[in-house]
Amino acid sequence: MSQSQILLVDDDQALLGTFTESLRAEGYLAQPAINGDVALVLLQQRVTFHLLITDIVLPGVLDGFALARRAREFRPGIPIVYTTGYVQVAHIRAHGAPYGEMLLKPWKAETMLRAISTALGEHGVQVA
Question: Structural domains in the chain?
Answer without folding.
Answer: 5-120 (3.40.50.2300)
